[in-house]
């Protein structure tokens, strides 16, 4: 017999000798502990426990009911009448039953997500059997505690709308980021907005996913960065950081949203990315970053890290990543106007077809990059 059960029985015997107390709540708890310690409780014991509980449940106090709810709600052998009797008490007891695995249908879960109070929704958020609709309802409640519980609940599904909402909040709220980055069911593309807060391995995976997406859906070529334009940015960097960031953001079409995001990132990773996206060389971008004269500019280690980042991303990738980080939805790429003859020259024996441009990777190369890590659209 487990030590905890033996202690409960000893306490029960002592109280019985002393007399003058209502022992019914303790009797119910001790019997429940004895049954829970048995992997396969005999049917006769379950029947006897059910009879005892039906007789005593109406009169037990809330503290005892809460203890029984936590122990019995998720136990597969709990008789249905006991489950119903505890649930009938409502309030905190019902909340504890829901939190600890009380069997509920998908429709019941969604009804509680829609109509339940704060405590009930908090109890639902930790359940592993939530439906996608229930998760959507809970995220729409826009409560910090619920969001963090759902993020930590790796068994709960994450529909697209919920992911978009939580990632958007994660861009602003630091508490969201570690949990989101740790979820195995979120793709690297979905986590791209949190690139600045990711570790080295996750950053590399995000960049690889963006490269694969770029290979499948190439971006339109951006105009080359002119010397006078960059020179004006250099002048602004030393005089008015905010104006410099605004000028770069306008050049990329990100407007005030991108400018604010660049200014807020004191690591200057985003500044390095937008400069790369504009077509600045690593040397030019490094001059700009040093000209800012901030903490990052005075850190040799930080400057080397920024150089490594700029060398790891081509302009098109840097542009996509910067837009993700700033929370700007990029427009769908326009289909390029390319003449396609009625008969492909490569199919005519009289003349040779044009060779595949080297800049456009073969489909086998693209699929090789994607591999088993197929990203959710």
Description:
The radius of gyration is 31 Å and the shape is elongated. It is 61% helix and 0% strand. The model is unreliable at 331-340 and 343-377 (pLDDT under 50). The protein has helices at 3-18, 24-36, 43-56, 62-72, 80-87, 91-99, 106-115, 118-125, 132-140, 144-152, 160-170, 177-182, 200-216, 227-239, 241-252, 255-264, 269-278, 282-291, 300-312, 315-326, 363-370. Helix 2 runs antiparallel to helix 3 and helix 9 runs parallel beside helix 11 (160-170). It is mainly α. It has 21 helices and no strands. The longest helix has 17 residues, at 200-216.
Residues in helices, as a percent range: 55-70%
Based on Cα principal axes, name the global outline: elongated
Q: Determine the oligomeric state from the structure.
A: single chain
Please state roughly what percent of the residues sit in beta strands, choosing from under 5%, 5-15%, 15-25%, 25-35%, 35-45% or over 45%.
Answer: under 5%
Give the low-pLDDT segments.
331-340, 343-377
> What's the helix count?
21
Q: How many beta strands in the DSSP annotation?
A: 0
- Largest sheet, described in full? none
How large, in whole angstroms, is the Cα Rg? 31 Å
User: Order of SSEs, N→C?
Assistant: HHHHHHHHHHHHHHHHHHHHH
Kindly, what is the distance between the CA atoms of the first and last residues, rounded to a whole number of angstroms? 55 Å
Mean pLDDT: 85
Helical/strand content category: mainly alpha
């Amino acid at each position: 017999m487990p030590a905890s059960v033996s202690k409960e029985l000893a306490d029960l015997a002592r109280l019985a000798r002393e007399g003058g107390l209502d022992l019914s709540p303790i009797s119910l708890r001790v019997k429940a502990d004895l049954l829970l310690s048995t992997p396969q409780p005999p049917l006769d014991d379950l029947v006897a426990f059910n009879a005892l509980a039906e007789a005593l449940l109406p009169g037990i106090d809330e503290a005892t009911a809460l203890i029984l709810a936590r122990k019995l709600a998720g136990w597969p052998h709990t008789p249905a009448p006991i489950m119903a009797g505890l649930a009938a008490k409502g309030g905190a007891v019902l909340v504890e039953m829901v939190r600890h695995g009380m069997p509920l249908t998908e429709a019941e879960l969604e009804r509680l997500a829609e109509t339940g109070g704060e405590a009930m929704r908090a109890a639902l958020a930790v359940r592993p059997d939530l439906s996608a609709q229930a998760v959507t309802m809970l995220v729409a409640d826009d409560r910090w505690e619920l969001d963090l519980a759902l993020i930590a609940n790796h068994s709960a599904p994450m529909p697209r709308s919920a992911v978009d909402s939580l990632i958007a909040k994660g861009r602003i709220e630091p508490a969201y980021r570690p949990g989101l980055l740790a979820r195995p069911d979120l793709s690297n593309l979905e986590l791209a907005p949190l690139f600045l807060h990711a570790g080295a391995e996750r950053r590399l995976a995000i960049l690889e996913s963006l490269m694969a997406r770029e290979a499948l859906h190439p971006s339109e070529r951006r105009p080359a960065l002119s010397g006078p334009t960059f020179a004006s940015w250099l002048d602004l960097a030393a005089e008015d950081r905010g104006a410099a960031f605004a000028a770069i953001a306008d050049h990329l079409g990100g407007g005030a949203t991108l400018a604010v995001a660049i200014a807020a990132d004191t690591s200057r990773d985003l500044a390095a990315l937008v400069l790369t996206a504009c077509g600045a060389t690593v040397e030019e971008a490094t001059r700009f970053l040093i000209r800012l004269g901030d903490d990052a500019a005075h850190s040799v280690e930080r400057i080397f890290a920024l150089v490594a980042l700029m060398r790891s991303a081509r302009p098109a990738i840097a542009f996509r990543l910067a837009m993700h980080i700033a929370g700007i939805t990029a427009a769908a790429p326009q289909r390029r106007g390319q003449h396609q003859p009625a008969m492909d020259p490569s199919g005519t024996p009289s003349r040779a077809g044009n060779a595949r441009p080297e800049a456009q990777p073969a489909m086998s190369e693209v699929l090789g990059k994607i591999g088993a890590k197929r990203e959710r659209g």
